[in-house]
Each structure stands twice: as structure tokens, then as C-alpha cells.
Amino acid sequence: MDVTMTVNGRELTASVPPETTLLKLLREDWDLTGAKLGCDVGDCGACTVLVDGTAVNACLMLAGQADGRQITTIEGLADLDAFHPLQKTFEDLAALQCGFCGPGIILAAKYLLDNNPNPTTAEIRDGLAGNLCRCTGYTKIIEAVADTAKELAAQSAA
Ligand code: FES
Ligand code: FES
After folding, report:
1. What is the pLDDT of residues 54-98, one digit of tens each?
2. Last residue of a domain, which of 52, 76, 100?
């Protein structure tokens, strides 16, 4: 089947078998390897991308279900000049260890902050509940999301 979608602002088309997942399409056809293949069954969140602005496990979505939609991967979050504030804060706090969970966690955090710009710690934990970090670095990850929320609030007040 043929699928066409807008990925990080670019319209892309591919011809894939119907059982192809969005994750496989992104990684293997379009070389967007930021979304990681972890569990492949919806448990770890390593494959998280945004589909029409909503955080989705790309291993559970078929490429055909993403046809015609807007996809954002970690590669599309920064622009050429600067990291997204979430990426900058994660870097500043050294909030990740091996980094494998990072793209999924940052996109899940973006979805959280887009919908709740001033989350409590409990709401951050809840928002990231579907994203596992094998390095168990949750304290700094939660701190990084909270700091980003404060920075974005300061930017919008300035
Ligand atoms: S690889 Fe998709 S949730 Fe784990
Ligand atoms: S930093 Fe290693 S899995 Fe999260």
C-alpha cells in the first residue's frame, strides 16, 4: 500500500506491506532512527512520536493508520540553530544516561507541556508513566521537565 504523511514538515511517501508499523517505516524507509525500537509491544515508550500533536507509540500504529497525518519525531524538534528548550534542559542537567529512552521521553514531555504548561511533579510522573528508562534516571528526567516548564513560562511572560 502507498502511504503519504508529513514528517517533520516534509511530505514523504512510501510503498509498504500493510503490516508495516509507523516505527518501521520511520526507521527503515526514511532513516529517522531517533524513535527507538525497544519492546515492540507498547510497554516502553522508546518509540514515542507525535501524531497530529499526540504522543503515540509508533510500534503500535500501522503505517497505514498514519497516512495523511502530521508526524513529529525527535529529529524535527530542534531547528538548525537551536535545541528545543526540553532538549537544552535535558542536556544542561545531564538528565539522561545512555540516552536510549531520551527521544521518547522528550516527545512525551512535549505532549505533556503542550497540554499542561504548569504540571505538578505528580502530573509529570503520570505524563511519563508510559516511558521506561532502563538506566533508572527518573529523578533528573522529572526535574528537567519541571525546569523546562518554568523556563517556557518565563519566556512567555517576557
Ligand atoms: S518499542 Fe514501542 S512501546 Fe516499546
Ligand atoms: S538514559 Fe538509558 S534508558 Fe534512559
Report:
1. 999 999 999 999 999 999 999 999 887 889 999 999 999 999 999
2. 76
For the chain, how far is it from start to end, CA to CA, in angstroms?
49
Structural domain including 50 reads 2-76
Last residue of a domain, one of 76, 108, 134: 76
Supply the pTM of this predicted model.
0.96
Q: In this predicted model, what pLDDT tens digit does every residue of 86-135 receive, in sequence order?
A: 999 999 999 999 999 999 999 999 999 999 999 999 999 999 999 999 99
Q: Does 110 share its domain with 139?
A: yes
So what's the pLDDT on residue 157?
87
Q: pLDDT by residue (tens digit) across 8-26?
A: 999 999 999 999 999 999 9
Mutate to test the pocket of ligand 2, among 36, 43, 97 (most ligand atoms within 8 A of CB): 97
Helix, strand, coil percentages (3-state) for the chain, rounded to 5, are 40, 15, 45
Please count the structural domains in the chain.
2
Kindly give the distance from the C-alpha atom of residue 91 to the centroid of ligand 1, in angstroms, as a whole number.
Answer: 23
If you measure from the C-alpha of residue 140 to the centroid of ligand 2, how many angstroms do you get, rounded to a whole number? 11
